[in-house]
Design goal:
CATH superfamily of the largest domain: Nucleotide cyclase, GGDEF domain
Distance between the termini: 70 Å
Structural class: alpha+beta
Strand order of the largest sheet: 2-3-1-4-7-9-8
Number of domains: 3
Largest sheet: 7 strands, mixed
CATH class of the largest domain: Alpha Beta
Radius of gyration: 22 Å
Helix content: 25-40%
Number of strands: 12
Order of helices and strands: EHHEEHEEEHEHEEHEEHE
Strand content: 15-25%
Shape: globular
CATH architecture of the largest domain: 2-Layer Sandwich
């Protein structure tokens, strides 16, 4: 690949086609070399065996489209490195990166780059970013609770939406990226902080009771204050699970009564009149 040229677009077989903003197409194509490191992955791989990037996330977003930008960062990582030592910290980072990459792959995220102990990730829409962020928080929290003092990881996140500048090689620049980083810095470990622009983008999909308003906060480098919101990500995941849970269909009997299948199995059917 010529120096300075954009990575060649490609997609992985045996996975759902990536969305159009990632350059996806309906027909399947053969897997080619990783767009970032050149490694040729085995068939049906989800991640590059060399650099670890999610393969579908190696596709570039389209120039001129608004994106949702997610910044993540492990809180207090410098002190943790000093306390745990390099070898243990390296293992923690590898496990943390695996969690993040699995979720961004699942939610069609574009891994822009690693930022030391965090990620810069781009999404086509706000809901995908929130779902990915919430799932990462859930996974990290579960592992930390299971491992205890040997895995003291807490991740803070910032989410913003707007226009970006695309650079050769898949990097993104601009005010939207800077704002996402500043918003992340306003949060603490275990939190997902969103901008007004992101809140407005998902207002029809995320109920108001799933947010805690943080008010208008001063953002470093900006003259105006920015209204920020804290996602109640545990409640958000629970609501998402309820939304996707299939409900059993009631059975209509010949006498006009309806029976709940679960009650019928238990031998105590609950009946209700059917409107004429």
């Amino acid at each position: 690949m010529a120096a300075g040229s954009e990575p060649e677009r490609w997609r992985q077989t045996n996975v759902d086609a990536p969305p159009s903003w990632l350059g996806g197409r309906s027909e399947q194509e053969e897997v080619r070399a990783c767009a970032f490191c050149g490694e040729v992955p085995p068939p049906a791989s989800s991640f590059c065996p060399n650099c670890g990037r999610a393969l579908t996330a190696a596709l570039l977003p389209q120039q001129g489209e608004s994106l949702t930008v997610l910044f993540t960062d492990i809180e207090d990582s410098t002190n943790l490195t000093e306390r745990l030592g390099d070898l243990q910290w390296e293992q923690i980072i590898d496990e943390h990166n695996e969690i993040v990459r699995e979720e961004l792959h699942r939610h069609a995220g574009f891994e822009v780059k690693l930022t030391g102990d965090g990620f810069l990730i781009a999404f086509a829409d706000g809901m995908s970013a929130l779902r990915c962020a919430a799932r990462v928080q859930d996974q990290v929290t579960q592992v930390a609770a299971l491992r205890g003092a040997s895995w003291p990881v807490s991740v803070r996140m910032g989410v913003h939406r707007g226009d970006v500048i695309l650079r050769p090689g898949g990097d993104i620049l601009g005010r939207t990226v800077n704002m996402a980083a500043r918003i992340m810095a306003k949060g603490r470990g275990g939190t997902i902080v969103a901008s007004q622009a992101l809140y407005d983008d998902v207002v029809r999909q995320v109920a108001a009771d799933l947010w805690d308003g943080l008010g208008a906060r001063r953002i470093r480098g900006l003259e105006r204050r920015e209204r920020l919101y804290l996602l109640r990500w545990r409640d958000f995941l629970e609501r998402e699970q309820e939304r996707g849970r299939p409900r059993p269909q009631r059975i209509t009997m010949t006498n006009g009564e309806t029976i709940d299948p679960i009650d019928a199995v238990l031998g105590e059917p609950e009946t209700a009149a059917v409107d004429a």
